[in-house]
Each structure stands twice: as structure tokens, then as C-alpha cells.
Amino acid sequence: MDFPVRKLPTRETLIRVQQQQDLETDASGVDLVLSLIATADLIRSTIYARLALHHDLSEGKFILLMSLYGEGEAAATELALRIGVTPATVSVMVKRMLSAADPLITMSRTQADGRTRMIALSPTGRELIKEALPGHLKAIGSFAEVLSGQERESLISMLRKLLRTSA
Fold first, then answer.
1. What is the Cα–Cα distance from 12 to 27, expressed in whole angstroms?
2. Helical residues (DSSP H) of 27-148, grouped into ranges
3. pLDDT truncated to tens, each residue of the chain (167 aa)?
4. What is the CA radius of gyration of the chain?
5. Predicted TM-score of the model (pTM)
């Protein structure tokens, strides 16, 4: 999961292409979005490489475990909605995780409907999340340390504005 840092086109390159193609696109907007993508890739790669190195957790496995830790047990379909993948993907993840020597999750049938299987954290999974979480949050937060508190709040506000307009 180690992404190479993308080499972005410079603003000058964007402007030159825009002029060559006679495009009416704002080069600063393109530059902004490309920079956001590259920054997100770098942050994501760094924090999940750390989880893999220190806790043998992939991004998908960590997200699944965090959902169970934060929101409690769930059926596979609900878990898929929570973490933004298909039920088939959750099914594969669960099968792999249950086949481990010391599984991080458990699966049990519900009493109300014997067909529904609930997925929950095992004691080992709960301990692993508790152990990994402080370092994970610190690794995430370290990316923001170059910004002042006011800059952070301003950037958060601007990013939320972008999210609202694209939804």
C-alpha cells in the first residue's frame, strides 16, 4: 500500500495546456484538486504503512475493525454500508479474518433469525485496536503539525465547503 508521491504538473504547465487546448478551466482550481489528491495519497500511504509495519493491519482490515470497535457488532450487509464496500468484499474479508490462528473477529447467528450472522470484535481484535489506535491517531495528527490552530480550522472549513458542493 505504499503509493509513490505523484509528480504534479506545475501551475505553468496547467496554464500552457489550457491555452494550447483553448480551455476555459481555471488552472488554480485544477492545481488545488491535484494537490489535494497527492496530499491525501501521501497521508494515506504513510499512516497505513505504519499500521502494517507495527500491527500487521491493512487499511481494509483496520477500517473494518474500527467500525466494529466504534459502532458495535453488525451483520455483513450493515458492515459493508458502514465501511463503503460491497457485501461480497466484507464476506471475503470476514472469511480470511476468521481463518487466522487467533481471529480478530467472531461471527455468530442471531437468536431472532438463525440465518443472520453477526460479526463482532474478538477479545484479540479489541486489544489490537486499543493498542494501535493511539499511534495511528498520532501519525494522522502529525501531518497537521506544520499548520497553526487557526490554519487548521480554516482548512477544515474550506474542505467541508468543497465536500458540500460535490455531494
1. 9
2. 27-55, 59-71, 76-83, 87-98, 123-142
3. 445 666 777 778 877 877 777 777 777 888 888 889 889 989 999 999 999 999 999 999 999 999 999 999 999 999 999 999 999 999 999 999 999 999 999 998 877 666 778 999 999 999 999 999 999 999 999 999 999 999 999 999 999 998 888 65
4. 21
5. 0.79
